[in-house]
Here is the input.
Amino acid sequence: MLGEAVLSTLDGLGLAALPWELPVMQAPIGPAGSWELVAAVSAVGGLGTLAASWTELAELRAEVEHLRSAVSSPFCVNLVLAFDQRERLELVLRHGVSVVSFSWGVDAALIERARSAGASVLVQVGDIQGSRRRPRHLETDSTSSEHSDLISFTRLCRACRTDSLRIATLPVPPL
Here is the structure.
């Protein structure tokens, strides 16, 4: 099965289990998405992702509260780093969001803040060079496993390249 093959590959790379059930992440699709879509994806085991970069704080708080009451499984909030996202990050962390993703840049201080609050952090990259960069303070030596969840996307793709993997489409039930 696809999920088992990908999870086996992740284990082989020394990456602990993902904090969600299936190795599927719904893209943060800006205003085309909704908290209901995020809840539906998370309810079936994928990682639903709420695009929050341009959302007013009061609306973001309401969306996160809806999600927390609708699903018990993890969901993600995405923040685009072309804008100051400190207030939004603090809000989602205060409301117990367990996965945060950042796009359009790397901000070591925001990554460290999210991690210190116990959130898993994902960073979207736009090219191969971006997948090889990471903030220096997140580098680890061979004796530390503190940041063992950091992995190069290109390394993951190379490991996943196999004829046994096929694209899978998961049905997302309406709420």
